[in-house]
Write a structure and sequence with these properties.
Elongation Factor Tu (Ef-tu), domain 3; six-stranded mixed β-sheet; 2 helices; SH3 type barrels; single chain; 192 residues; mainly beta
């Protein structure tokens, strides 16, 4: 399956980057200052909070301002995080409600057969018979399983469950996902 949540709106922060520009993925959102030592509460978007360790560089806000994590700790069910560049409560206040990003270069490698959600966006989706049915535009997380949202050539949306019975193969090198359409899947969405 995929590692997510998306870690950013549709995987990539400000649309597709230009040639040679880095990709950034959102790992959380800063909420409010906590205490007087420059800590902020942070809502996590990532399944890998262990990468947010002191000494690691992250990027804040839409302009991706680089900062270095000075400390982090759990307080109840919230992560508290502090940065070298913002040593106290008054200085860190400017980061309230900002998104925290990491560069994709910093992402841990996933086991074979697992993918980050951003890697699936824009892949072409074909049936096992070779029929092109659309491109992945988004991945929706549900309680049971993720759902691939495809856009067809006619700009219609198709929802495909991200389950082994449907998603047969993902080939990142070729930019292709091969799927098996379960009987009635497209018909139930008004597509034939």
């Amino acid at each position: 399956m995929t590692a997510g949540p998306f870690e950013s709106q549709n995987g990539i922060s400000d649309g597709s980057p230009g040639e040679g520009e880095p990709f950034f993925l959102a790992v959380g959102q800063l909420r409010r200052p906590h205490g007087v030592r420059g800590e902020m509460t942070m809502v996590l978007y990532t399944e890998f909070p262990e990468r947010l360790q002191p000494g690691k560089q992250v990027f804040i806000g839409e302009r991706h301002k680089p900062v270095k994590i000075s400390r982090q700790r759990w307080h109840r069910d919230m992560l508290l995080i502090a940065f070298d560049e913002y040593p106290d409560r008054s200085s860190i206040e400017v980061l309230r409600n900002q998104t925290v990003y990491v560069s994709v270069d910093q992402l841990p490698e996933l086991p074979e057969g697992e993918f980050y959600q951003y890697e699936l966006v824009d892949l072409q989706v074909f049936t096992e018979e070779g029929e092109h049915i659309g491109n992945v535009v988004e991945i929706l997380e549900t309680g049971a399983n993720d759902v691939l949202i495809l856009e067809t050539d006619g700009e219609q949306e198709i929802l495909l469950p991200y389950i082994d019975e449907v998603v047969r193969e993902i080939d990142l090198d070729r930019g292709i996902i091969t799927v098996h359409l379960l009987p009635g899947l497209l018909e139930s969405q008004g597509k034939t």
